[in-house]
Amino acid sequence: MKTLFFAWRYLWSRPLGAALNLLLLSLGLASITFLLLVGAQLSKAFDRDLAGIDVVVGAKGSPMQLILSGVLHIDVPPGNVPLQAVNELAKNPLVAQIIPISLGDNFAGYRIVGTSTAYVDHYEAQLAQGALWTQPMQAVLGSAVAKRMGLQLGQTFVGSHGLGAGGHTHGENAYTVVGILQPSGSVLDRLILTDTASVWKVHEDYTAVDDDDRKVMEEEREITMALVKYKTPMAALSFPRYVNTSTEMQAAAPALEITRLLNILGLGTDVLRAFAGVLLLTAGLSVFIALWSAVRERRTDLALLRMLGASPAKVATLLLCEALWLGLLAAVLGVLLGQGFAQALALFLSLDNSLLIGGMVWPAGLWVVPALALVVSLASALLPTVAAYRVSVLRLLQSR
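Now predict its structure.
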């Protein structure tokens, strides 16, 4: 305990140098913490939200845009597709299930999704209150939506046109809250779910059409996309090709597109990793120089300790403990800073209700951060410690 106390006093005997070393180490560790947190949460979000969805069918355009808008709900869709065409796909012997997705409106930035109750079943979401919709203009709120907007069962709200806040409102068509989902950690937490017919009702105008025109309008109805589940994995070899070549729609495989997305993101994370590595290397050199200088400047103290009976190992341990204190402080500060950066990103993303990313979580891989802090600090102290261990009392006294 005395060794740890003396090491702490020695560390802060030069406060500016100690603070600089602590800052450099902490920033490098914070960068690594941030990358680990975001990477782990993105992978978890992708695995969770893409599970069980073999292919997404929608309007021709960017396949990645189709996945991001229809599964993760963080982009705008490329367009709509005819309902009749999707119904024909449902008859395909390779298809086990089709979940319709209709987009176009929002409430306070939260997307209103027209779909079927199979969408709720797909993510195994449970109701916290109320029930699922049984008719148009009834809505079920994700847990994050209900918490943020403070809506309760029986209350009504009006959607706005577009997928972001600020569009004109559909004042004549109000939704009634009939259910609130329990938190599931899935994309459903930040969505407002309703029947597909609700979306048609909001956007179709029957006031100036006769029965024949109304029938034509119903036959020409569209949805935004469809989430498809195969009956057999072998369908992945032929079904997307069939959709892309034989219809006016396109089929996008979530696994393939997310792999491409992660490869793109990997370029940015490589740069951040390199930056963090440079910071840690700089911090390690700074700690080495500081401890090496400390050995030279504390010759008198070291000589007194040896004369009072301290063994060479005791003197070396004192220097190692000083580096250990620095590593521990940097580990704590670096993790807290990294968590804070991740939380700041979460607040930024909440502006458009994107992926659920935040701080204050601890994935298993995060243990590498405190381990790395101790390795860098102790490795930097290795040569100064050896020098302090080998020097003799006579040489220390003669150097004065």
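The chain has a mean pLDDT of 82.
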